[in-house]
C-alpha cells in the first residue's frame, strides 16, 4: 500500500467528507522527528557526528575553534532541547549587569515601558497655540516689496540708491549687507542719496562717491555709521539726526508733500535718478556684487538666481536681466516654426497654428462629411 | 515647321471659356477612328454644353467654411495653400510653367465635379491622345514588323489604365474619401462606385452586327472599330445623346479609371503649359523608361507553319529543321537541339525534350527574330516637329504579319 493511502487510513476510515490530503496532513502532524532531520547537532553533544569528525580531522580530543562553527540555528532554538547549564552562563550574566547602566537608567530605577501617552512628559507649546494672541514672531515681513519694479526709471533709481548705499558702507568700512536692515530711508536721507553722484572711475566703490556738498557727506556718513549697529539705538539716532536735517534742508526748496501720514509712494515720488552713471559700475568684487544684488533685489523685488548672479558683471547687466533682455524667455517650438521665414517660403511645408487632429485629417480627406451624414442617418448627431 | 502657339491653348484651358473642341483636337480627331469614350463631340455641341452650365451658381466668399462644403471640388485658391500639391509638383519634377492650379485641376475627376471648367476631362482627353500617339509611333518605328495583337498588348502595357494606375500610385497620389470643396487639392478626387457594382460589357459600339456574338472578329477590324488597345469602345454619339451621357457618369468611377484619367490629364497639362518638348521629355522619362519585354507578348499556335508561310512570302528557301546536337535519346530526359535552316542560313535554334518540341521552339525563335527586328537609330515622325530637325528619312515599313 502506498504511504499516502496508509495515511488516509489512519483517519476515520471510509468517510470521504473528512478527507484531508496527505500533504496537509503531513503539515498538521506534530513533527519533532521530521524537524530533527534538519537539526545541526550542536557540538555540545560530544558524541555528535560533527564533533567526531572534527576530532578526527584535528587528531586530538580537544580540537581548536568554535564548538559550533555555524552558530545556533533557528530550528534548534525552537525544537532543540533546553541545553544543560553550561559553565559559561554566569559570565554572560555578569556582562549583562555591566551593560545595564549604559542604557541611561540609574541603577536601581526600574524601567517600565509606557502603553499610552498619558502621564508622559510633553515637549513644545503647552497651551492651545491658536488661541494665543499673535506675537511679534508670528507676523511675517517679506524681504522683497509687494510690488516689483519693471519700468526703467524706478529700476535705475533703485540701482542708484543701492550703489550709493554700498559705496557709503564701503567708505565707512562697515559690513556691506547691513544696508538691507533699513528697508526705506526717510525722505531727507533719500534726497541726499538722490543728489549724490557715483563716478565709475575707480574699481573701489568707496572712492567713487561725489557728494552734493560737504554737509551732505557729513550727514550721510553719520547716518550710515549708525546702520548695522544695535537697531533701536540707530533708529533713535537717525530720528534725531533727521530732525536736525529737516530744519537744515528746508531751504533746499524741494517740493514736499504736505501729507506725511499717508503711505509714502515708492522713492517718494521720484521716477528718475538724477545721475545715471551708477549703471556702469563694475561688479567684479564678489562681496560688493553680493551686497549690491541683495540690496537691489530688496528694492526692486526681483530675485536673482545663482546662474544669473555669476553672469552679471556690472550694474547694467542686473537691470537688463530684470527687463528681460539678458535672458529672454524661450519661445515655444510652435511659435518658432510659425515665425520661421524659411519654412514660410517652402511651398511643400505647411505650418498650422493649431494642433491637427484626426478631425482635421478627416476633413481634408473628405471623410468627415461622410461620417457626419452617417451619424445623422442613425440619429446619433443632431 | 512653324512653332505652334501653345500659350493660347493653355489660356483657354485656364480661363472660363474652355474650348474643348479647339484646333488641336480638330487636328487629332480628323482621322476615321473615334478614339475614346472621353473624347468630346463636335465643338458646337461643346459650346452649347458650356452655355447650358448654370453660370449663376451662388458664389460665396472663398474662405468661409460653409461655402467650401457646398463646392463640388476645392476652390482654385486652395491650390496655393496645399503642401501636398506642391510636394507632388516637386516630386514629379514638373516644369515650373505648369501652375499648381492646373495640377489641382488634373486631380479632379469628372465624376467629382461635372463642370468641365473645373474637372480634368479635357486635359485627360488631350493627354490620352498624346500618350497613345507617342507610344504608337514609338512602337511602330522601333519594331516595324510586330503583329497587331502584340502592338495592342504593348500599347496596353505602356499606356493602359492599369499601368497608369500603378504610376499614379508610385507618384504617391492618394485618394480622397469623397470629393468636396473642403478636401485638400492634393488628393485625387472622384466619386467612387458603389460596392458590388459589376462592370458592364461595352455596348453600342460602331462595329456593325455587334449583336452577333459568335461572329468572328478579325484583328484588323479592331484597328477601325476598337480603341488603341483592341478593346471595344462606344461609338460616336449625337450631341443630344452626349449631353444625356453625362448624367450616368455621375454614378462613380473606379479608382483605376480615375487614376488613369489623372495621369493622362497631367500629360495634357504639361503639353499645354510647358510645350511639346517638355511633354515628350515627360513621356520618355515616365512611360518609355518602363521596361517591357516585348518578346514575352508573343503567342504562336503553329509556329512551324507560320514560319514556312513567311519564308514563302519572302521568297526564302523553305525552312528545314535539322538536329544540331542531341543527348540521351534513349534516356528518360533526352535533349535535342534543333536548328531551322533556310538554305544555308540558320533562322533559329531551339532545345527541347522531344524533336517536335525542339523544332517548334526553333521556329518560335526564328519568328521572334523576324518580328522583333528593330532598325538602328530609330526616329519617330514627331521628332520632325522640333525646329532644326534633320531631314526626314523614311522609316522601314513592313508588309505586316503572316496571315495563314
TrEMBL record, chain A:
Residues 87-97 have a biased composition (Acidic residues). InterPro entries: Ribosomal_m50. Residues 77-86 have a biased composition (Basic and acidic residues). It is found in: Mitochondrion. Pfam families: Ribosomal_L50. The keyword Magnesium does not apply. It comes from the Eukaryota. Residues 77-108 are annotated as: Disordered. One of its GO terms (cellular component) is ribonucleoprotein complex. The keyword Nucleus does not apply. Keywords: Mitochondrion, Ribonucleoprotein, Ribosomal protein. Belongs to the mitochondrion-specific ribosomal protein mL50 family. This is Large ribosomal subunit protein mL50. It comes from Aspergillus ibericus CBS 121593.
Automatic annotation (TrEMBL), chain B:
Gene3D superfamilies: 3.30.160.20, Ribonuclease III domain. Residues 302-372 form the DRBM domain. InterPro entries: dsRBD_dom, Ribosomal_mL44_DSRM_fung, Ribosomal_mL44_DSRM_metazoa, RNase_III_dom, RNase_III_sf. One of its GO terms (molecular function) is double-stranded RNA binding. The keyword Mitochondrion applies. One of its GO terms (cellular component) is mitochondrion. It comes from the Eukaryota. Residues 85-275 form the RNase III domain. Residues 55-74, 198-217, 226-253 are annotated as: Disordered. Belongs to the ribonuclease III family. Mitochondrion-specific ribosomal protein mL44 subfamily. This is Large ribosomal subunit protein mL44.
Amino acid at each position: 500500500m502506498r504511504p499516502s493511502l496508509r495515511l488516509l487510513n489512519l483517519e476515520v476510515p471510509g468517510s470521504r467528507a473528512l478527507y484531508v490530503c496527505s500533504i496537509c496532513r503531513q503539515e498538521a502532524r506534530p513533527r519533532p522527528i521530521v524537524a530533527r532531520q534538519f537539526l545541526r547537532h550542536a557540538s555540545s553533544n560530544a558524541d555528535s557526528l560533527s564533533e567526531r569528525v572534527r576530532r578526527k580531522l584535528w587528531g586530538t580530543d580537544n580540537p581548536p575553534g568554535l564548538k559550533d562553527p555555524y552558530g545556533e540555528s533557528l530550528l534548534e532554538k525552537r525544537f532543540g532541547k533546553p541545553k544543560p547549564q553550561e559553565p559559561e552562563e554566569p559570565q554572560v550574566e555578569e556582562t549583562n549587569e555591566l551593560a545595564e547602566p549604559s542604557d541611561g537608567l540609574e541603577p536601581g530605577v526600574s524601567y517600565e515601558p509606557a502603553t499610552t501617552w498619558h502621564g508622559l512628559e510633553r515637549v513644545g507649546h503647552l497651551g492651545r497655540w491658536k488661541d494665543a494672541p499673535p506675537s511679534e514672531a508670528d507676523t511675517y515681513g517679506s524681504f522683497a516689496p509687494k510690488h516689483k519694479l519693471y519700468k526703467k526709471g524706478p529700476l535705475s533709481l533703485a540701482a542708484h540708491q543701492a550703489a550709493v548705499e554700498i559705496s557709503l558702507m564701503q567708505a565707512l568700512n562697515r559690513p556691506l549687507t547691513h544696508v538691507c536692515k533699513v528697508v526705506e530711508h526717510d525722505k531727507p536721507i533719500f534726497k541726499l542719496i538722490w543728489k549724490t553722484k557715483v563716478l565709475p572711475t575707480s574699481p573701489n566703490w568707496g572712492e567713487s562717491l561725489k557728494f552734493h556738498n560737504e554737509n551732505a557727506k557729513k550727514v550721510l556718513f553719520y547716518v550710515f555709521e549708525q546702520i548695522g549697529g544695535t537697531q533701536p539705538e540707530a533708529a533713535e539716532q537717525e530720528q534725531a539726526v533727521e530732525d536736525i536735517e529737516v530744519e537744515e534742508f528746508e531751504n533746499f526748496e524741494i517740493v514736499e508733500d504736505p501729507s506725511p501720514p499717508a503711505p509714502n509712494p515708492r522713492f517718494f515720488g521720484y521716477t528718475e535718478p538724477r545721475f545715471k552713471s551708477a549703471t556702469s559700475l563694475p561688479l567684479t568684487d564678489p562681496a560688493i556684487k553680493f551686497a549690491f544684488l541683495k540690496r537691489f533685489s530688496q528694492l526692486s523685488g526681483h530675485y536673482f538666481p545663482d546662474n544669473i548672479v555669476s553672469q552679471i558683471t556690472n550694474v547694467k547687466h542686473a537691470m537688463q536681466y530684470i527687463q528681460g533682455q539678458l535672458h529672454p524667455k524661450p519661445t515655444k517650438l510652435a511659435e518658432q516654426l510659425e515665425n520661421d521665414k524659411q519654412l514660410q517660403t517652402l511651398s511643400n511645408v505647411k505650418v498650422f497654428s493649431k494642433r491637427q487632429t484626426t478631425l482635421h485629417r478627416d476633413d481634408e480627406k473628405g471623410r468627415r462629411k461622410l461620417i457626419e451624414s452617417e451619424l445623422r442617418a442613425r440619429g446619433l448627431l443632431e | 515647321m512653324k512653332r505652334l502657339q501653345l500659350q493660347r491653348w493653355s489660356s483657354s484651358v485656364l480661363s472660363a471659356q474652355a474650348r474643348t473642341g479647339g484646333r488641336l483636337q480638330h487636328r487629332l480627331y480628323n482621322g476615321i477612328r473615334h478614339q475614346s469614350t472621353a473624347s468630346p463631340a463636335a465643338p458646337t455641341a461643346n459650346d452649347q454644353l458650356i452655355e447650358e452650365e448654370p453660370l449663376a451658381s451662388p458664389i460665396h466668399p472663398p474662405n468661409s467654411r460653409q461655402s467650401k462644403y457646398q463646392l463640388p471640388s476645392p476652390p482654385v485658391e486652395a491650390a496655393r495653400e496645399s503642401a501636398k500639391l506642391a510636394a507632388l509638383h516637386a516630386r514629379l519634377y514638373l516644369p515650373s510653367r505648369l501652375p499648381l492650379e492646373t495640377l489641382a485641376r488634373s486631380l479632379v475627376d469628372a465624376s467629382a465635379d461635372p463642370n468641365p471648367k473645373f474637372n480634368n476631362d479635357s486635359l485627360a482627353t488631350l493627354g490620352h491622345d498624346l500618350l497613345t500617339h507617342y507610344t504608337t509611333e514609338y512602337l511602330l518605328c522601333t519594331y516595324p514588323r510586330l503583329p497587331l495583337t502584340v502592338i495592342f498588348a504593348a500599347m496596353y502595357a505602356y499606356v493602359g489604365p492599369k499601368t497608369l494606375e500603378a504610376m499614379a500610385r508610385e507618384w504617391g497620389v492618394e485618394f480622397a474619401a469623397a470629393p468636396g470643396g473642403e478636401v485638400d487639392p492634393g488628393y485625387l478626387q472622384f466619386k467612387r462606385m458603389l460596392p458590388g457594382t459589376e462592370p458592364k460589357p461595352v455596348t453600342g459600339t460602331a462595329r456593325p452586327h455587334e449583336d452577333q456574338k459568335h461572329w468572328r472578329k478579325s484583328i484588323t477590324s479592331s484597328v477601325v472599330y476598337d480603341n488603341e488597345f483592341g478593346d471595344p469602345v462606344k461609338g460616336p454619339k449625337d450631341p443630344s445623346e452626349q449631353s444625356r451621357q453625362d448624367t450616368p457618369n455621375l454614378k462613380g468611377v473606379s479608382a483605376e479609371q480615375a487614376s488613369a484619367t489623372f495621369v493622362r490629364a497631367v500629360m495634357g497639362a504639361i503639353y499645354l503649359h510647358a510645350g511639346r518638348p517638355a511633354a515628350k521629355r515627360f513621356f520618355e522619362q515616365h512611360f518609355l523608361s518602363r521596361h517591357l519585354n516585348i518578346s514575352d507578348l508573343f503567342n504562336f499556335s503553329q509556329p512551324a507553319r507560320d514560319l514556312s508561310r513567311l519564308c514563302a512570302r519572302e521568297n526564302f528557301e523553305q525552312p528545314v529543321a535539322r538536329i544540331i546536337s542531341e543527348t540521351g535519346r534513349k534516356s528518360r530526359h533526352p535533349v535535342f537541339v534543333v536548328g531551322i535552316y533556310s538554305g544555308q542560313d540558320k533562322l533559329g535554334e531551339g532545345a527541347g525534350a522531344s524533336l517536335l518540341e525542339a523544332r517548334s521552339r526553333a521556329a518560335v525563335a526564328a519568328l521572334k527574330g523576324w518580328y522583333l527586328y528593330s532598325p538602328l537609330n530609330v526616329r519617330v515622325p514627331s521628332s520632325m516637329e522640333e525646329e532644326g530637325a534633320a531631314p526626314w528619312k523614311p522609316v522601314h515599313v513592313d508588309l505586316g504579319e503572316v496571315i495563314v
